[in-house]
C-alpha cells in the first residue's frame, strides 16, 4: 500500500485509548511511507489523525466538498487539499487516491463511507483491503450484526470476512499490507427461495 484512506468521526469523545490508537496508526503509517487520504477537516478524530501524521513528517491529503469547508473547518496545513463539489465526488476521489481503507470510531458519516467502499469491493469495483480499527471493542456490536446477516443468509461469509479487524494499529496495517481481497458474488446460487 502507498496511501491509506481513513474514515473517522467529525467528533472526538476525549477517549485517551482512542487518542493513543490514532497516534500509533500515524506512527506506523509515517514509518512505512504511507500517505493519509481523508475528509480534509480539522475537527474531531479527522483533525487528530491529520495532525498526528503531519507532526511526524508524513503526507496528509484532504478531500472536502465546498459546503463542508466551514462546518468541518478545512485543515489549512495539509500537504494537499482537494475541494470538490459533492459528497459523492469526495468519496470517489478518496478511493481513487488511496489503495487501502481504515475506519476508526465515528458516527453516521463514518459508517456510510465504510459500508459504501465495502459494497464497492463486494461488487468488484476496486480491490483495496478494508480494515476496521476496533478500538476498545467500539465496533463489536456492528460486527455481531454482520455475523447475523451471514447466519440469516443475507451475506456470504467470504464477503463478511473481507473486513480486516484489529484493535491494534500495527497489527491491522500488517494484516492489510500486500493483501488482495477476493470477494464472491453477492448473490447466493440457490437464491430462488419463494
Ligand atoms: P461522522 O462519522 O458522522 O462524524 O462523520 C464523519 C465524516 O463523514 C464527516 O467528514 C462527514 O462529512 C462524512 N460523511 C460522509 N458521508 C456522509 C453522510 N452521508 N452523512 C454524514 N456525514 C457523511
Automatic annotation (TrEMBL):
Known EC number: 3.2.2.n1
Gene Ontology molecular function, alphabetical: AMP nucleosidase activity
Signal peptide (UniProt feature, chain positions): none
Gene Ontology cellular-component annotations: cytosol
Pfam families noted in UniProt: Lysine_decarbox
Reactions listed under catalytic activity: AMP + H2O = D-ribose 5-phosphate + adenine
Family annotation (InterPro entries): LOG (IPR005269), LOG_fam (IPR031100)
GO annotation, biological process: cytokinin biosynthetic process
Record keywords, A-Z: Cytokinin biosynthesis, Hydrolase
Family: Belongs to the LOG family.
Protein name: Cytokinin riboside 5'-monophosphate phosphoribohydrolase
